[in-house]
Write a structure and sequence with these properties.
291 residues, alpha+beta, 4-stranded antiparallel sheet, 12 strands, 34% helix, 23% strand, globular
């Protein structure tokens, strides 16, 4: 019996609070890993599994992405997401998208139906409407922010993101990232999550999804840096991932990332207080952790 090539890795965002119960998030991520594992075993493409898994993370309201996002300083919920296909390096992304439930589905539509990589703001919203994506008619009723102002003040954490990486039975890699952005952000602020090379990357070497202080991840080009360290520098996945995250730390930022190599290796480093994460390893075991 041949060994499965399927791998799946998730994160539910950096910045876990030590005194908070993340049981619901960890159980939810384990369930998504199980569902994604079964889809991959049945022959589903890595890209499709990444999109569907992130859409479930967005819809759950358990993370600072999709339904669990917080509004910006103007009271508007602006969401970001990106997606990348390893074999083709096709990419799609949306930034500062308001009024729609699933930014990752909008990112997939950008990838599949336009010659562009990134649509933002009103243009992204008009595109999502034209594609018939699910609209949010009453944002205050629909959104259920994960972070309260009291928790933000107590912890100092302002970030949260979700991400998914997959390798399917053909060996193809895919990566996606989705976020509600930082708490109390300026209108129009965009972090690393919708930027290929910063918050997401997939090629024939590695797939990466990042979470944390987006400005620092942009400045360090973290996701692409890992790929380039491996491709051109010959570094291992673990060494490349840690070195890229160390550069974020040197810039004064914190956060974490998940990375999956073409060989099936997994790295999940973080320098924040915690990072909610789960994975399906080479032996078929599922692990989920917050710290």
């Amino acid at each position: 019996m041949s060994r499965s090539r399927a791998r799946l890795v998730l994160h539910g965002g950096a910045g876990a609070l030590p005194d908070r119960d993340y049981g619901p998030q960890l159980a939810h991520m384990r369930g998504l890993i199980e569902a994604g594992r079964d889809r991959l075993a049945a022959g589903a493409a890595a890209l499709d599994v990444v999109v569907e898994t992130i859409a479930e993370l967005e819809a759950s309201g358990l993370y600072v992405a999709g339904r669990g996002a917080s509004p910006n300083l103007a009271g508007v919920y602006e969401l970001d997401a990106s997606l990348m296909d390893g074999p083709s390096r096709a990419a799609g992304a949306v930034a500062a998208l308001a009024g729609f439930a699933s930014p990752i589905r909008a990112a997939r539509a950008v990838m599949d139906t336009t010659p562009h990589v990134l649509l933002a703001g009103a243009g992204a919203a008009a595109f999502a409407a034209a594609r018939g994506l699910e609209a949010i008619h009453d944002p205050d009723a629909w959104f259920t922010p994960v972070w309260s102002e009291t928790e933000i003040s107590a912890s100092g954490s302002k970030v949260g993101t979700v991400g998914c990486l997959a390798r399917d039975e053909t060996g193809a890699l895919a990566a996606g990232t989705s976020t509600g952005g930082t708490f109390c952000k300026l209108p129009g602020r965009v972090g690393d999550s919708p930027i290929p090379g910063a918050g997401v990357w997939a090629d024939d070497t590695v797939a990466v999804s990042c979470t944390g202080e987006g400005e620092m991840f942009i400045r360090a080009a973290v996701a692409a840096q890992i790929a380039h360290r491996m491709r051109f520098g010959g570094e291992t996945l673990a060494a490349a991932a840690q070195a890229a995250l160390d550069e974020v730390g040197a810039l004064g930022g914190d956060g974490g990332l998940i990375a999956l190599s073409a060989d099936g290796e997994i790295a999940m480093p973080f320098n924040s207080k915690g990072m909610k994460r789960a994975c399906l390893d080479a032996d078929g075991a599922i692990t989920s952790q917050a710290f």
